[in-house]
Amino acid sequence: MSELFPIHGRLAGIDYGTVRIGIAISDVGQQMASPLDNYTRSGEQADVRRFQRLVREEDIRGFVVGLPLHMNGDESVKSQEARQFGAWLESISELPVIFFDERMTSAEAEALLLDVDMSRAKRKKRLDKLAAQIILTNFLQARADGRWPADGGIN
Fold it and tell me: Is the distance from CB of 37 to CB of 129 less than 8 angstroms?
């Protein structure tokens, strides 16, 4: 799938969770990523509407879904859930989806939020979309450096 993945246009980075999904988007030139939303899941139809609206309103051209791996690189049960979600995203959006190693992104996001002296409640509201931004930023950097798909690009 990597040869079909768009090199121009906005991408959406996804930090998958069974309850909340962090969403980040890139600029059109795919140089930087910004946190967009923490989406709280509320059923299949609501999920379809939310992600189809995201594609339409933000003119998304592809998705980068964080793949949770064990520290040794092995996949986990959560990895399979993220893969199923990615397949679902691809089917409802008709856009390409790639998976990218997300090890330590939530910890990195939490550390960044702790550095800004934010309350626990405010950190929780921002954590998932910040993790999505880190996933997407790491993907964009790996691709710009010529390290993708070999470094973290997992399909």
Answer: yes
